[in-house]
Amino acid sequence: MQTATPERRKASQPRADALRNRERIVTAAREMFVEHGPDVPLDEIARRAGVGNATVYRNFPDRDALVREVVCSVMDRTARAAEHALTESGDAFEALEHFVHTAADERISALCPMVSTTFDKHHPDLEAARLRVEQLVEELMGRAKAAGQLRTDIGVGDLMIVVAQLSRPPAGSPCLSIDRFVHRHLQLFLDGLRAPAPSALPGRAVTVEDLRLA
User: Fold this and answer.
1) CA angle 198, 202, 205 (to 5 degrees)
2) Which of 15, 38, 73, 128 sits in a 20 to 30 Å window from 5, CA-based?
3) Among residues 68, 42, 64, which one has the least CA distance to residue 55?
4) 24/66 Cα distance (integer angstroms)
5) Are 146 and 92 in contact (CB under 8 A)?
6) Mean per-residue pLDDT of the chain
7) Cβ(118)–Cβ(38) under 8 Å?
8) Among 195, 207, 81, residue whose Cα is nearest residue 140
9) What is the pLDDT of residues 168-187, one digit of tens each?
10) Is the separation of the CB atoms in 96 and 144 below 8 Å?
11) Is residue 73 over pLDDT 80?
């Protein structure tokens, strides 16, 4: 007599409260990494998130996993902002401006340097998030160039370098102390990108590949 093979249980989905806790941890970690750097105690992150230490470690087995999740989440939100700009704005340069200011608000320049100091920058999750952002920025810039609004002698690398530099605080200064300057200086930079260009730039356009080799 053969017995029926029991049906395999379906993988259970995370409960809503578990998902909320994970989001609260990532949000708290992002805020504290920006304010204090990647070495902030995990106990402090748990306290700000309003969860216990065990909940943090249940979601993220080590600091590297948490930092990676924070950076990827910021890049994902930045990518969604680029997608929104591409679909909602009829003006190509306006879409590029929207993306640049949103990227600054996401603190991407303060978080991304942690990649090279805390974990493997070639992790598949990070590579996928970074590639998505790069492709969308390329599309935004390409559309603005095709419309004759963006000077043609710059590349994605040029844009990313300057946005990172202008939205990062000077050495020894807290990140939040320059909030009142960031968007003003970014707009000055964006105005300099408009076509026709008033002057020729030395050298050649900086590509994403150039940044990876730097």
Assistant:
1) 95
2) 15
3) 42
4) 12
5) yes
6) 82
7) yes
8) 81
9) 655 545 555 556 678 888 89
10) yes
11) yes
Q: What is the pLDDT of residue 142?
A: 95
pLDDT of residue 214: 66
CA angle 133, 136, 95 (to 5 degrees): 115
Domains and CATH numbers, the chain: 15-61 (1.10.10.60), 68-213 (1.10.357)
Assign 150 to helix, strand or coil. strand
Q: What is the pLDDT confidence band of residue 124, given thresholds at 50, 70 and 90?
A: confident
How does residue 108 score in pLDDT terms, banded at 50, 70 and 90? low
Tokens 């900086």 appear where? 206
Q: How far is CA 103 from the centre of its chain?
A: 7
pLDDT at residue 200 is higher than 80: yes
Burial letters for 15-24: b for 16+ Cβ neighbours within 10 Å, e otherwise?
Answer: eeeeeebbeb
Using DSSP, state whether 78 is helix, strand or coil. helix
**Identity at 108, one-letter amino acid code:** I
